[in-house]
Amino acid sequence: MISFTHGVLFYHKGAGQGEVVEIIGEVTKQLVTICQQLTIYKSQEKGDIIKYCHQIKDESLSIDVIYLLGGDGTIHELINGVMQAELNLPIGILPGGTFNDFTKTLNLPPQPVAAAMTLQNAAVKHIDVMKINDRYGLNFAGMGLIVENSEGVAENAKSRIGKFSYLMSTLRSVTNPTFFNYKVTVDGEVYTGNSSMIITANGQFVGGNRIPLTELAADDGTLDVFIFKESGIKLFTELLTEKSTENWNDISNNIEHYSGGSITIETENTMAVDIDGEIDIETPLQIDILTKRLRMFVGPEDI
Question: Do the domains 4-122 and 137-292 sit in the same CATH topology, yes or no?
């Protein structure tokens, strides 16, 4: 069993798959077996976690491990805090959101208490980070249909449909999406056209569903760009068929795929961008991969 001197457990007041106080209690029982001291930090509002990360750095606090109970949006805030403060600490994620996409990429159980138990003997893996303009992301950056859908679904409705995936449901049912003109540059190669959605991925899951690319990994030093040309049932069906980087563009008529380390995305009109569930920046985008920049706990491959 691994052990640490002083850990901090971040959580947001709205986090958890149920009653957050009860979940924190059960999670803490597991974490104190590997931490001599555990500080529990409740985030009251957006930005609190980033501030505390800077405090760890500026005050040289004796923290040697970070845990977070939260969903993809809260993870996004933590990663930005860690990167901004240049912290080099192992990070353990406990799922507390609707989809918990990056938790799946890390092979951790979908329940927070089970994930906490897994962290007791978990290995640490170096994970890539996306630098998106002046922000950082772990999982994806997307525009178009993914933003339209997210903005049109209330948070309580998203929680209700949960695993049924509001994104995939939309891809299957929307017949008149908004298309936009784009210019995408991948490692110097330029691609232009008309799209309903563009997603740049580092993680393996978006909206609760696995991206069907066999080589996709969060530690391969590569970004994967998917340009969606259609919507409706054609696109939904194609996303159920697994493909490789070698044959994707040969067998796909509706989604183009490109890989690289540096990506620029320009759109004819300014568009809102979703980064790991947070919609707060706009095009144009400069996205770069920061290879193996974070240390994160991962579960066994058979989770």
Answer: no
Q: Given 3.10.129.10, 3.40.50.920, 3.40.50.10330, 3.40.50.150, which CATH number is that of 4-122?
A: 3.40.50.10330
Nearest to 199 by CA among 176, 169, 167, 242: 167
What is the per-residue pLDDT for 161?
A: 41
What's the rounded mean pLDDT across residues 60-74?
93
- Helical pair 112-119 and 20-31, crossing angle rounded to 10 deg: 10
Residue 154 has pLDDT above 50, yes or no: no
Question: Which residue among 230, 238, 278, 301 is the active-site one?
Answer: 278
CATH tag, 137-292: 2.60.200.40
31 — alpha (psi -120 to 50), left (phi > 0) or beta? Answer: alpha
Task: List the chain domain ranges.
Answer: 4-122, 137-292
- 237's CB contacts (< 8 A; 6+ apart) are none
- Is residue 278 part of the annotated active site? The answer reads yes
In the structure, what pLDDT confidence band is assigned to residue 182 with cuts at 50, 70 and 90?
very high
